[in-house]
Specification:
By secondary structure, this protein is of the alpha/beta class. It has helices spanning 41-54, 72-75, 79-91, 103-108, 111-116, 169-179, 208-224, 250-258; strands spanning 11-16, 27-28, 35-36, 61-64, 96-99, 128-131, 141-143, 149-153, 227-231, 263-268, 275-278, 285-288, 301-307, 311-318, 323-326.
Length: 344
């Protein structure tokens, strides 16, 4: 008996993370334990774009999960040139790009400069449903590629030291917070105490304003029975990444997600090794995508996701493995965020 062909996907999209391009010879990470291929990362981006262009089903959009260029560009006065080089490549792609902001964006540009730049995808997307308060300078928005599906882009450095003026209240509050957990003179050096490792300068978190906004977006999606995928540079589930890459207040964001039935997936970058975990509390898939910058020149690191009514199928290339994300089944009421969060 012949197997019936599967229905075509409702839509597809591309995913790529941590390109960190710089026109520099290979280097190493902060601890000089891992090689980084700054220059050849551009070719790996070209490989991904070529794959998406030649695909029988063109992606509806591409998610760029942050760290599009490397922080070393700043010290070489090459930030604008490097960004233009990468964005020129993206412009040859088959679909619009939704850019997430990571720590390397803030190494190169101020928050106000990023809001005025081509990395502000809210300026180029006509699928925005809601925007964060304009006076907060929070880069968070949602868009709907097709009816019934919502994507939410979060600002993982809304709370943090990067991109904030040292004289600002946001900077002072963030410095006070990180100092409660990290006494090191160099705040990029972690305290190796389990989950406390996350309190470094290259991480950040989500303000109450952003969490409340996300809660309202998800409440609306619950009512309309829409399926939501959330994206951020920083992972928020401890079992989807190493502690040193977690968002500062990952637990608060997890509480918001777990209090709704609409969220099906959370996608992040930052951890160049990647990771995956399906949260037993709600069944949400937490995917951390492998970084391009630590992928050798003869490899690849990107994925194409096909979306169906009941699942998403991720087809990885190179270091990114294939996965199937079955959508959670809504069973009864979702318990509101717990006071004492337990990681499952």
């Amino acid at each position: 008996m012949e197997k019936c062909p599967e229905h075509p996907p409702l839509f597809t999209f591309g995913v790529i993370a941590d390109i960190q391009y710089a026109d520099l010879d290979d280097g190493y990470n902060f601890t000089r334990t891992r090689r980084r291929y700054y220059r050849s990362s551009l070719q790996l981006l070209k490989n991904a774009l070529e794959s998406w262009r030649e695909s029988a089903v063109k992606p509806k959009f591409i998610l760029q999960l942050g760290d599009i260029i490397d922080g070393f560009n700043k010290s070489h006065d090459a930030s604008d040139q490097a960004l233009d080089t990468v964005l020129t490549e993206f412009s040859s792609g088959p679909a619009e790009v939704h850019h997430v902001w990571g720590n390397h964006e803030f190494y190169n540009f101020s928050r106000s400069a990023l809001l005025r730049s081509r990395l502000n995808s809210t300026l180029h997307s006509d699928g925005i449903l809601n925007a964060a308060p304009a006076d907060s300078e929070i880069y968070a928005y949602s868009f709907s590629p097709v009816p019934g599906f919502i994507f939410v882009v979060l600002d993982g450095y809304d709370v943090g030291l990067l991109g904030r003026e040292e004289s600002s209240q946001q900077y002072k509050d963030s410095l006070s917070l990180i100092r409660q957990h990290n006494p090191n003179k160099d705040l990029n050096s972690p305290v190796f105490k389990g989950l406390e490792e996350r309190y470094t300068m290259f991480n950040g978190g989500f303000s109450k304003v952003q969490l409340d906004w996300l809660d309202s977006v998800l409440s609306s999606a619950d009512e309309k029975q829409e399926k939501v995928t959330i994206v951020s540079h920083l992972p928020v589930h401890p079992r989807s990444t190493t502690p040193i890459c977690l968002a500062w207040n990952y637990d608060e964001l997890l509480s918001v997600i777990r209090s709704h039935s609409c969220v099906v997936c959370f996608m992040a970058g930052h951890d160049h090794d990647g990771g995956y975990h399906r949260d037993k509390n709600g069944g949400v898939h937490h995917l951390t995508v492998q970084g391009v910058v630590e992928t050798p020149p003869d490899g690849n690191a990107f994925a194409t996701v096909s979306v169906y009514e009941d699942k998403m199928e991720l087809k990885g290339c190179g270091r990114v493995r294939d996965r199937v994300f079955e959508f959670p089944q809504n069973e009864g009421n979702i318990t509101k965020a717990m006071t004492d969060l337990q990681i499952n």
